[in-house]
Amino acid sequence: MAVGRIPDTILDDILNRVDIVELISGYIPLKRSGRNFKAPCPFHHEKTPSFMVSPERQIYHCFGCGVGGNAISFLVKYERLEFLEAVGLLAKKAGIILPERQKEDPQVASFISQLYKLNEISALFYKDVLNSTNGLSAKLYLERRGINDETIKLFQLGAAADRWDMLMNHLRTKKINLSLIEKAGLILPKEGGGYYDRFRNRIIFPICDIKSRVLGFGARVLDNTLPKYINSPETAVYVKGRHLYGLNFSKDSIRESDYVVIVEGYLDFIIPFQAGFKNIVASLGTALTVEQARLLKRYTNNVVMLYDADKAGEIATLRSLDIFIEEGMNVKVVSLPEGFDPDIFVRKNGLDSFKLKIQQAQGLFEYKLTVLKSRYSPEETEGKVKIASEMLSTINKFKNAVSKSEYIKRLAESLDVGEDALLQELKNTKEARPNSGGMPEIQAKALAINPTEKLLIKLMLEESGLIHRIKDDIEPADFQDSRTARIASILFDLVAQGKKIEPNLLASHIGEDDILRVICESTFMPDVSLEDKDRIVDDCIRRLKLKKVELQRQHLHEQIKSAQHLGDEEKLHSLLEEFHHLIKRGE
Q1: Whole-structure pTM value
Q2: Is the pLDDT at 442 greater than 60, yes or no?
Q3: What is the CATH number of domain 451-583?
Q4: Cis status, amide bond into 503, omega within 30 of 0
Q5: Beta bridge partners of 197
Q6: Three-state secondary structure along 401-460?
Q7: Could you tell me the CATH superfamily of domain 111-238?
Q8: CB contact at 8 A, 214 and 126
Q9: What's the whole-number mean pLDDT along residues 322-331?
Q10: pLDDT digits (tens, 9 = 90+) for 523-555
Q11: I want to staple 269 with a disulfide (CB 3.0 to 4.6 A). Which of 199, 226, 262, 282 is the partner?
Q12: For position 559, what pLDDT does the model report?
């Protein structure tokens, strides 16, 4: 069958040319674990890595949340792509030219693709407005802020005119549906009906993903009115906690310098970048998430967080940095003088002073302890308790026992309390780790499938030669679980057609998530030695047949009891004969 209008042969060719380990390691760091690779799952928050990737079978599976599949399904889930978009990306990577497809009508083109296209059109519109008479005030504002034309062009900066419907009218001339424009977050509904532009009389900052696709927009006023900034709402392509502003421009510099500086706002990123400080990103004021940490971890393990000195909620924000510690990354913190942010600091003091501040960054432990001591008195019992509680929350995130021990010692000395007391409190905090970044802590229930059936599926997936032998002895109906019966039926059909059996190729042709999960879990079962396979296959077949007979006996036994209760002698005689026949078969 052809999936998503792409022929099976081409899908199989793409999957055979793409290495899933190489693909996934471009998104998350993988560590070898025997014949497989392991990592913390990118799809849910977990403390113990349970995400496995098989280079041999070219599939992945998380034993925590249960997701699994091949290279295509990984891209679909991780990048939030549609199937055809994921196939297109992998085809390009594999050097395979996809067959020409008829040009799709804009009304039926994929929703995600439409949003990307709409955002791109809007970004170009805002850029044109900036360079027109409607954007004169915005252009003068950017000049006053020290942003040159080259930077404006690089970051696709634009302007929204002081009009209620300028963007909307422009998009309508391109026959773009109002519903789609609203779903992209570009317009808002009026109370009495109709729509108006979300962004008006503001500087426009396109927000892009790592591939420089426009996801949404940030918009700043030209004066000091509030709110100073408004951003696109979350959409099908824009999820705030998954992206960092400017990373598409800075990723190579981050990898080269092996550290990244995180600032808060658009201009905090743009001004240092324009001055020549390239290994920088902006969090756009959101609490840092696990996904953002893992995104940065592709390029470096070293993070420097740059704070405004008078930042509200500083301790709460410091807590969010514990995410980096949980991910095994090194975190340092810089606080600028009061009244300065990175934008102002670079413009007033120059790039060299900015770099010096970065070099003087403190470790997260030291910085957080200093902040806490300025908030709570370490001379008072209540102050010591608050400081210890906050610090132990951070210490608890370190995975290395030696690091924990050293930090406990330093905290005890700083607060003049006993190490034993801190160690006891540390034990009390271990069950209180907050979940980070909105990713749920999940432990999927194990599939309730007979291990014998699962093992047979594994063996058939590994050696198609065994399928012929198994097919001669049992039928799909001999599998008691509907999922394993379905897989057995698929495998029997494929081998009868002379087709190749490979888990990663099979995953592209199975739409049912629970069946795909059975295939993934079966693949990652412990290996069976070559010399034992024949014996194990025989044993599994025998067990399946015995189990089937046992279930039939139980069913007949219930029917016999019912016939006795009803006094149906004729039916009772027939059932007893069938029951005795089953007993002989099981002997």
Answers
A1: 0.62
A2: no
A3: 1.10.860.10
A4: no
A5: 187
A6: HHHHHHHHHHHHHHHCCCHHHHHHHHHHHHHHCCCCCCCCECCCCCCCCCHHHHHHHHHH
A7: DNA primase, catalytic core, N-terminal domain (3.90.980.10)
A8: no
A9: 88
A10: 888 877 766 778 888 888 888 888 877 777 776
A11: 282
A12: 76
